[in-house]
Design a protein that fits this description.
This protein has a 6-stranded mixed β-sheet with strand order 1-2-6-3-5-4, sandwiched between helices. The protein has a 6-stranded mixed β-sheet with strand order 9-10-8-11-7-12, with helices on both faces. The protein is of the alpha+beta class and about 500 residues long. The protein is globular, with a radius of gyration of 23 Å. It has 2 domains: about 250 residues, Metalloenzyme, LuxS/M16 peptidase-like (Cytochrome Bc1 Complex, Chain A, domain 1), CATH 3.30.830; about 210 residues, Metalloenzyme, LuxS/M16 peptidase-like (Cytochrome Bc1 Complex, Chain A, domain 1), CATH 3.30.830. Strand 9 and strand 10 form a beta hairpin.
Length: about 500
């Protein structure tokens, strides 16, 4: 939401691994020949290119992957902790820190830093997520010395200028307010997670709320960097046109004296699934649309049924021709679009359905969405549907692993979540092994029952309150409230 531009530079940390099987779109539409070739590649098993991994004495993990196709080097630096390490009651600190990493570092102020990147045609950005802060960029291989210098300065010696802090904090507040005015759907996840997860760390908005941001001080960001940034928290991945021996020496020289982090990492426990159904109604008077989010706690990154899960979600809500979108948009015309997906972290995130409809269609659309979820649990997936989903996922998978930047982000994710290379290399063959029985098993295990979970509705409460009350016990709040859930609703459920 708030660091959108910066995060896009990082190649969407987690995109490759979370988005696979969820119907996430590829930047360009591949040809039929490319898709057939991709399917064949995935079936055989995608091979992770040769690379070197080593750990410095200070705990810094380094991965070097030579790829000589183009004279570019991509870098992904992953710092464990992220928004989970925000001080209690102060969400948004990690996000603000991430936004300040390229606003001056080392001997360069904000302008000089940006000029150094732009002057060689490079890219550099940072963003926070729930479990990490990621820094990423791309530079011509000829500019590798500058790339390492900028990266080392940003991670170890950011200026964290007080004026830049104030501007960024104020901008994040304004972005939240602007979203409420023009695009409340962009805040559905913030409202939804706050309501679903209660006092669990996953409830905290990564970018903060109006209330939390207003209370943050420059000293909070400085303290976060001092305690939560350190060599042992970081994985550096370089992929592209690089000389391994030179890069090993340069990285060791630039980062070898970095001290370990002094603060503690939060310990995550899985949140319980919600039993029964409860509703959060966010009142947006005069809105002609209702934005809704139906969710419960799902599964984590290591979920054993991942291949079957990805296929089922593709069929259910992960592509344009999915069951959910077909029923809500194509057949009934109730919705402008509907989708579903799993957020998978070190512990289970949420499974969520999201859509938006005209106000007068709110009740019908939510009822139909719940009906499709119920049918998913009772109906058998036909073999031809399963084969369609399998071809789709098999074809999409290698297209997300084409560039050096993709590989840098992917290997960074594997390290963050402590996943083996087989997570990538064995994915295609495991997809091939999924049968109808496996799909039924993951539906029963991972997809929520329609009567259990939370529903978030953002719309004109006067017109949709009756629908909300019919669906379950209602917590109501105004869209103008500076938090994403009332205090009494933020307690564990």
């Amino acid at each position: 939401m708030c660091n959108v531009a910066a995060r896009s530079v990082v190649v969407g940390l987690g995109l490759l691994l979370v988005g696979i099987g969820s119907g996430a779109a590829v930047a360009t539409s591949p040809t039929k020949q490319e898709i057939r070739r991709a399917i064949d590649t995935t079936r055989k098993g995608v091979q992770v290119p040769a690379h070197e991994r080593f750990t410095l004495p200070n705990g810094l993990t380094v991965i070097l992957m030579p790829r000589k196709e183009v004279p570019l080097i991509a870098v992904s630096a992953v710092v464990r902790g992220g928004a989970l390490a925000d001080p209690a009651g102060e969400p948004g600190v990690a996000s603000l820190l991430a936004g300040l990493l390229d606003k001056g570092a080392g001997k360069r102020d904000a302008f000089a830093f940006a000029d150094a990147v732009a002057g060689v045609g490079g890219s550099f950005g940072a963003g926070a997520s729930t479990e990490s802060i990621a820094v990423g960029g791309e530079f011509m291989s000829r500019d590798r010395v500058l790339m390492i210098e900028l990266l080392a300065d940003a991670l170890q010696r950011p200026r964290l200028d007080a004026t830049e802090f104030g501007k960024l904090r104020d901008r994040q507040v304004e972005l939240i307010k602007a979203a409420k005015d023009s695009d409340p759907s962009s805040l559905l996840t913030e409202y939804g997670r706050a309501f679903l997860f209660g006092d669990h760390p996953f409830a905290r908005p990564v970018d903060g709320s109006e209330t939390s941001l207003a209370g943050l001080q420059h000293a909070d960001v400085v303290a976060f960097h001092k305690t939560q940034f350190g060599a042992d928290r970081v994985t550096l991945v370089f992929a592209g046109d690089l000389d391994v021996a030179w890069m090993r020496k340069a990285v060791t020289a630039a980062f070898g004296n970095w001290q370990r982090a002094t603060g503690s990492l939060p310990t995550l426990q899985a949140a319980p699934r919600v039993t029964g159904r409860r509703v959060l109604l966010v009142d947006a008077p005069g809105s002609v649309q209702t934005y809704f989010w139906i969710a419960n706690v799902g599964v984590d990154r290591r979920y054993a049924g991942r291949p079957a899960l990805d296929l089922v979600n593709t069929l259910y809500g992960g592509r344009f021709t999915s069951i959910l979108n077909t029923e809500l948009r194509i057949k009934s015309g109730l919705s402008y679009g509907a989708s579903s997906g799993f957020s998978r972290g070190s512990v289970p995130g949420e499974f969520a359905i999201r859509s938006f409809v005209l106000t007068e269609n709110t009740g019908k659309a939510i009822d139909l969405a719940l009906k499709t979820l119920a049918a998913l649990r009772t109906d058998t997936i036909a073999p031809d549907m399963l084969e369609s989903a399998r071809a789709y996922v098999l074809g999409q998978y290698p297209l997300r692993l084409e560039t050096a930047a993709h590989w840098a982000a992917t290997l960074g994710d594997l390290e963050l979540y402590r996943l083996p290379l087989s997570y990538i290399e064995g994915y295609g063959p495991s997809l091939e092994a999924v049968d109808v029985a496996a799909t039924r098993a993951v539906v029963a295990d991972a997809f929520p029952e329609p009567d259990n979970g939370v529903i978030v509705m953002i719309g004109d409460a006067q017109k949709i309150r009756a629908d909300a009350m019919r669906l379950g016990p209602v917590t109501e709040m105004p869209l103008t409230a500076p938090v994403f859930v009332p205090a009494d609703a933020a307690k564990s459920k």
